[in-house]
Design goal:
about 475 residues; alpha/beta; Fumarate Reductase Iron-sulfur Protein, Chain B, domain 2; FAD/NAD(P)-binding domain; 3 domains; 5-stranded parallel β-sheet; 19 helices; about 15% strand; binds flavin-adenine dinucleotide; binds iron/sulfur cluster
């Protein structure tokens, strides 16, 4: 056997100096030749540690074996047995903490793991390009199910049920389906055409999508049952932004990351002729160290931000964002200020002219330096303020990306629906809530998590709904 190349094949990308000024996809995808060469690095391990590291247990050695034989449709069929959003997951899953973390090449040989995510994306994109046949609608089984929310959990639950002949309606609060995949994750990381394709596949299967319907306002869960739906899946996500509760957060120029990204992605504020207001230019501070913070910072840069800072209270080591996003952000020129935490946002106040248009707008952010203390209950070292170490950064915009929680609307309008102390809907291992025939999954249950875990929860609930309604 030839020696295994120690490095993963590089992903072709747009040059940092070019991509920092456009919204086109950064990573361009493997060519067939690169994918074939990367597949050759896989050892086809019998015990499949990578599959065990995948939250939906894709048979990874099996799909890579098909790539080795240049059977890309065969590879696609293997992936879709476990995952219905492979073009999405190949792009945004944190593989370094999941399948690739368990790869034998990394664990036993100490070299780069197989580029599993990159190969998954290659297979999904090749399939999309070749796809000519629409899926046929399955024979209806006479049962009706309502799905609340069209993010990865709702789309997956709806798709799995539709394939079994259920009449499924998705109720979505926004005017476009896709959840965070369309309103949160920017075009330069996940082109919207890919999400639209996945949504269209569901429509071809017969799933009805009702947009601009807020469950808890337009209709309640109880009214859905009165309309003849026999089960309801709640996949309403965790879209309620958190703030720091520091002075100055209500100044003009402070955004939650969700609002900022929604304005840019969903309301197309980045287009030159868009009428959606958003910051353009000036200095920007993004507070947080997760994927959301990276997306907000890189979006602000592309919108013309002159100096864009990431302010994070721990060190680079603890940063929860995907490695690739952090690397890409650094290459594009984002200025990482770690081990510091905002204590106040400072505004303009022209004492001489109360009508100065700058009054009430952000002028700077005051931060305090931090050091790391003992690990918390999740094993992450807790930051401690260093007294007297305050400093200011001149900025015009502050974007808070410090987390989100589930919106309480559905809980407050659905009698008997229990939630935990963080607002997550309480479910059993099948996704069943405290209400009969009401299931839930994804961020609405766990709080902000990942696309693949939301998909997994949608799958689990679809299975349980099928068993309950078919009497199995
Ligand atoms: P969501 O995707 O949030 O979808 C919920 C849907 O329900 C929304 O469309 C919402 O409008 C709708 N809804 C809410 N309330 C109602 C209601 N009352 N009635 C009707 N509809 C309602 N994860 C990764 O794995 N990798 C990443 O790189 C990554 N990057 C991210 C970047 C950003 C900016 C954000 C915000 C998240 C990111 N995540 C990432 C997390 C991931 O996107 C989420 O964990 C995932 O989308 C959760 O899926 P979901 O189906 O539970 O909810
Ligand atoms: Fe291939 Fe790595 Fe999985 Fe082994 S663990 S089968 S080398 S991807």
């Amino acid at each position: 056997m030839a020696a295994i190349e120690p490095k993963k094949h590089e992903m072709p990308v747009q040059k940092p100096e070019v991509r920092a000024h456009n919204f086109d996809e950064v990573a361009l995808g493997y060519s067939a030749e690169i994918a074939a060469a990367e597949a050759q690095r896989c050892l086809n391990c019998k015990n499949k540690p990578c599959t065990q590291g995948c939250p939906v247990n894709i048979d990874i050695p099996e799909f890579i074996a098909h790539i080795k034989q240049n059977d890309i449709e065969g590879a696609y069929d293997v992936i879709t047995k476990s995952s219905s959003l492979s073009a999405v997951c190949g792009r945004v899953c944190p593989q370094e903490n999941q399948c690739e973390k368990e790869c034998t090449l990394r664990v036993k040989l100490g070299i780069d793991p197989v580029g599993i995510g990159r190969l998954e994306r290659f297979v999904a994109d090749t399939h999309r390009m070749n796809k000519t046949i629409k899926p046929s609608k399955p024979e209806p089984n006479g049962h009706k199910v309502a799905v609340i929310g069209s993010g990865p959990s709702g789309l997956t639950c709806a798709g799995d049920l539709a394939k079994k002949g259920y009449s499924v309606t998705i109720f979505e609060a926004l005017h476009t389906a896709g959840g965070v995949l369309v309103y949160g994750i920017p075009e330069f990381r996940l082109p919207k055409i890919i999400v639209a394709d996945e949504v269209n596949t569901l429509k071809d299967l017969g799933v009805e999508i009702m947009t601009d319907v807020i469950i808890g306002r337009t209709l309640t869960v109880d009214e859905l049952f009165a309309q003849g739906y026999e089960a309801v899946f709640i996949g309403s996500g965790a879209g309620l932004p958190m703030f720091m509760n520091i002075p100055g957060e209500s100044l003009c120029g402070v955004y939650s990351a969700n609002e900022f990204l929604t304005r840019s992605n969903l309301m197309k504020a980045y287009l030159d002729d868009s009428r959606t207001p958003i910051m353009k230019g000036g200095n920007v501070a993004v507070v947080g160290g997760g994927n959301v913070a990276m997306d907000a910072a890189r979006t602000a840069l592309r919108l013309g931000g002159e100096k864009v800072y990431i302010i994070y209270r721990r060190s680079m080591l603890e940063m929860p964002a995907r490695n690739e996003e952090v690397e890409h952000a650094k290459e594009e020129g984002i200025d990482f200020r770690v081990l510091c935490n905002p204590v106040e946002i400072l505004g303009y106040k022209n004492e001489n002219d109360p009508r100065d248009p700058k009054n009430g707008k952000v002028r700077a952010i005051k931060c305090i330096r931090t050091e790391l203390g003992e690990p918390d209950e999740r094993g992450r070292r807790s930051p401690r303020d260093i007294p007297g170490s305050e400093f200011e950064l001149d900025v015009d915009t502050v974007i808070m990306a410090i987390g989100t929680s589930p919106n309480p609307l559905i809980k407050s309008t659905t009698d008997g629906l229990e939630v935990n102390k963080r607002g997550g809907i309480t479910v059993n291992e099948c996704g069943l809530t405290s209400r009969e025939n009401v299931y839930a999954g994804g961020d609405a249950v766990t709080g902000a998590a990942t696309v693949i875990s939301a998909m997994g929860a949608g799958k689990t609930a679809a299975k349980a709904i099928h068993e309950a309604l078919s009497g199995k």
